[in-house]
Structure formats: structure tokens, C-alpha cells
């Protein structure tokens, strides 16, 4: 049973789908649509980061005593992704599709690598070490991410 991995991986997919919708919208005649969709993506992704940084990572660190391991690396990558999200948002606001695509491509690569590490290393470790707390932790993660998927 992998409730944390399943839930958080599902939330990755939800964020990925929102990100893909932005790129698809770039060819639409409505210039405001990509910015709105990107705002939706940012809101979902930042909520995901918040769930990890305020609930999941501290619970894992408390249960394992590991504070400078995978959770620290994930936090550093969150900082990098926030910066790239800001770059992409600014490019969209300026109507600069080329700059947006450059920042978005870098963001996509970082997100893919980040998600693989979480899904294949950190989340399984969380499921192992937090098995007795999943019943309390999952509702908190769901509330923070705003996603009720299971």
C-alpha cells in the first residue's frame, strides 16, 4: 500500500496537465488565455510545494531524523522551479512567447527530474516511515493541494 506516493504522484499529474494546457493555449487567438492557464498551473504547483514543505517533509524528517537528505534537495529544487515560474509568468505578461517557451522548457525538464526523484525515492520512503500517520497526513495534503483525488 502506497497512499502517500499514490496521492502525491496523482497531484503531480494534475499539475503536469495544467502545464500542458498552457502550451496548447499558445496557438489560440485569445492572448489572455495562456496567462490565465499559467496562473492556474502556478496555483496548483505552489499548493503542492506547500503541502510538501509544511506537512510531508517535516513529518518525514521527524520520523527519520534525516533533515539534510532528500527533503532538503527537494526544497532547493522548489526554489529553482519558483524562479522559473516567475520568469515564465513575466514573459507571458510581456507577450514574449519565445522567452516563455525557453523558461517553460527549462521548467519542464526540472519538473520531470524532480517528480521522478520524489515518486521513485522520497514518496516510497515516506510511505515506509509514515505508514502509521498516513490517515492523518493524507487529509492535510488533500486540503493544502485542493485536490480530492486518491
TrEMBL record:
It holds the Pfam family Hemerythrin. InterPro entries: Hemerythrin-like. Gene3D superfamilies: nmb1532 protein domain like (1.20.120.520). Transmembrane segments: none annotated. Residues 6-126 form the Hemerythrin-like domain. This is Hemerythrin HHE cation binding domain-containing protein. It comes from Azospira oryzae.
